[in-house]
Design brief:
Helix content of chain A: 40-55%
CATH topology of chain A: Arc Repressor Mutant, subunit A
Distance between the termini of chain A: 23 Å
Shape of chain A: elongated
Oligomer: homodimer
CATH architecture of chain A: Orthogonal Bundle
DNA sequence: TTAATGCCTATAAATTCAGTCGGATATTAG
DNA sequence: CTAATATCCGACTGAATTTATAGGCATTAA
């Protein structure tokens, strides 16, 4: 049920880019240091996120990365789907990455039934939450004087 | 975000045992055939589920498996946690399998914040749903004359 | 022109996944 | 007691995935 470390890195990097959203680009090195992400690995990841259209880059001396779209137009679901594939716990209930499973009667499988609910809740959250939302939360958490551990949307 | 095939097999096997819950034991072979699960692999899995205390076995000629507890006392969460570890998408928001992540400030991480919500929903469903619930759904689905594809709890 | 930066490909170690194999052990039927 | 039948158990394996690292190429600003 877990995301890969790669996806975690991607999300952290995107969050940083979201918080610095503007005309300026940010160097990989800077993100890497700020977020404790291996530089060369992050290079791969950001490059990959370009194919998704989430970020864009400038090469050369003053090069770096920035978001390709405003953060409110980048949903968590789109990122995770791109990096991890299905949001569903089993692919036979995935809408975007459906694959038939080996069970004798898929249509009447009770496991499927439960997993659909799980998928539904995960999708509901991840399709609703944008990078902008996460930036806002980040700023709220940053501003909090006392350590915070829970909150609502 | 996906379960391993091994866990899928385990759930399918448990469901079968749940539907046949009683004094009788069921042979691995029978479950394997009914559910299209490789026999030797299933052997491993069921044996493993014994350690969890979900099933018990009898060896020898009239041997086989059955549930070790009534199906209403076996939650989906307990099974998945045992087989997969954390239900949370990132281990820094897991209650049962917490691990610190490499991000600079975990307490104020916006990603964590969202992932906690996801975990919450997943846990809510999986801790609530028991094997008995799944058996009931299975019987309902079985009884349905027309193909069904959606339902509520 | 040069130094900084991203781009691209290859490689590799470690881990996980999805099994398979073979025999040990327990149980029952005869 | 013995043979047949089942689970138990540990080792092994091949393939895929994950998590990187290394090194040179291409591009750009100054």
């Amino acid at each position: 049920m877990k995301l890969s470390l790669r996806s975690e890195y991607a999300l952290r990097a995107l969050l940083v880019l979201g918080l610095n959203y503007g005309d300026e680009v940010m160097r990989i090195q800077a993100i890497s240091e700020q977020q404790n992400i291996p530089r060369k690995f992050l290079e791969q990841i950001l490059n990959d996120l370009k194919s998704l259209g989430a970020v864009e880059s400038r090469r050369g001396v003053a090069g770096g990365y920035r978001l390709a779209r405003p953060p409110q137009h980048i949903t968590l679901a789109s990122i995770v789907r791109y990096l991890e594939g299905a949001l569903a716990p089993v692919s036979c209930v995935s809408e975007s990455f459906y694959e038939r499973c080996s069970c004798p009667n898929e249509a009447r499988c009770a496991i499927r039934s439960v997993m659909k609910e799980v998928r539904g809740e995960v999708v509901k959250i991840m399709e609703h939450v944008t990078l902008a939302d996460m930036c806002q939360r980040s700023r709220q958490l940053e501003g909090a004087t006392t350590p915070v551990d829970d909150y609502s949307i």
